[in-house]
Structure formats: structure tokens, C-alpha cells
Amino acid sequence: MKRPTxxxxxxxxxVGKTRVAIEVARALGCDIVNADSRQIxxxxxxxxxxxxxEEQALARHHFVEFRELDEYYxxxxxxxxxxxxxxxxWKQGDYAVMCGGSMMYVDAVCRGIDNIPDxxxxxxxxxxxxxxxxxxxxxxAELERLDPQYYAEVxxxxxxxxxxxxxxxxxxxxxxxxxxTGRAKERDFNIVKVGLxxxxxxxxxxxxxxxxxxxxxxxxxxxxxxYHLRHLNxxxxxxxxxxxxxxxxxxxxxxxxxxxxxNTRVYAKKQLTWLQRDTSIQWLxxxxxxxxxxxxxx
Length: 298
Hints:
Elements: E1 5-10, H1 17-28, E2 32-34, H2 45-48, H3 53-58, E3 61-62, H4 75-92, E4 95-99, H5 103-110, H6 121-134, H7 137-146, H8 148-153, H9 159-172, E5 190-196, H10 200-217, H11 219-225, H12 240-248, H13 253-275, E6 282-284, H14 289-297
Parallel strand pairs: 1-4, 1-5, 2-3, 2-4, 5-6
Helix pairs in contact: 1-14, 4-5, 6-9, 7-9, 10-13, 12-13
């Protein structure tokens, strides 16, 4: 029996993943599974560059704007949701396209997430309340005490990962690092990973122009509409943080716009650093990627 194939299209922000994914999905007659951890939330499509209604009409997308901003969602939940969806997609055909730059989500499906116990809503709310009240430093100090191994390797500028590690340590009574096996799970489908990239100067120019377009589309108005929810983790993202600083009066508009560009460029470099560790990725130029993917698949 022929095994179905998941085509993973990843790469840095603004490189053109959505366009390539749509063209590949249309050629293969299959659906697209979104793998962007911010595009899953409603009400901020401009900031997250979520696929537009016109783009979604060209190919059916899953997991786009399907959660409220105050809803908790994790890579483990994403893995469970996608693994439940894929058998339904395989009934329609032999292919599905996964598209996004959130590598935790991509890895969750391609490699699997370790079986970490669920966190109770009460504990999750308590840790979040502590974070909102006193910031990240006390939680970092607690993490260093409870799990020095994970403390040594975690991105200390990423509140979400630090908060999750604290939740697990408190919930289980053991260091988070002891529950992370790093072993890949067996999947009953083939995986073809494609990374899109281009010359750095060209990518950065695309990022800068995209931010200008977002401003023209109404990023400021979108940010104002959710400003009262700025404490939520879902809004702790490039674009919103800078606009909130502008609303708070700690940054003028021009500085906020330029800071969004700069922080997006930094984020793109971080994405590439993560992706380049994965030797299974085949790197392609976005301009020729569709033909290359289809020739490899078909």
C-alpha cells in the first residue's frame, strides 16, 4: 500500500512560503496545514500575515484563525490536532502540504512531542499571574533552581518556554529536562521537507516592504483593537509589542515601525539558525521551488 506524503514547506518569515504552498497544493489537489503558531489566533491577521480569504479560496487551509487570543494552545496540542486531521486528508488523496515558520510546530508533527503530563488550568493560571505581576526574572531564578540543565539551554528571552518549563516542574515534581527524551516517533507517512531561502539582502528588503504594507493595511488599527488584551501571551509577538509601546508613549510611531522591521529581521535569522540544524531539509529558491517540489514528488 502506498504511503501518503506530507510536504513541509518552511523557511524564514516573508520568504514566500504561502504562495509556494498554495501553488503546490493546487497542483496536487490537496489541503494546506498551517504551521504558524501566531496565525492560529483570531483578530490579528495583518500582524501575523495570515493567509487572506482570497488565498484560502485557492486552497483549503487548516488551523488558521481558529483560536481566540486568550485560549491556551501548545505544540503538543497542535501535534494531537494535526495527527487527528491527517487520516481524514489521506482519504482525499496521497498528499498534504504543511506550511509555516514555527519550527516547534513542524517538529511536533515530523518528530513528535515528548509525552509531558497535562498542566491543570489552575496551575497554568497561577504561573501566568506570577509572570504578569513580577515578570520573567523570578521564574528564571526558579527554573535555575528546579532544572539547571534546561535553564542552561533555554532561550531566556522566550517567556512561553520558560513558563511552560516551570509549569511542568511544578506539576510533576521533577525537572522538565528529565521528561524530554528527544526520540523521534514513528510516522506512517512520508515526509518531504523543503526550506525556502534567498540572498539575505533580498530577504531583508522583502521584510521591510512587508512591514510598510502591513501599516497600509491597518496594523495600527488592528493593534488598537486588541490593546486591552496586551497581557496575553498570544500578543507577545513582533508587531504587537512595538505598537503597544507606541500606544504607551515609550516609542514614537516612526521608531515603532522601524523597530518592527528590525525585530522581524532578527526573528528571520533565528528561524534560519534553527532550520539549518535540520539536515533533512532540501533548500530551494522560492522562484523555482514549485517546479522543483513537483518534479521531486511526481
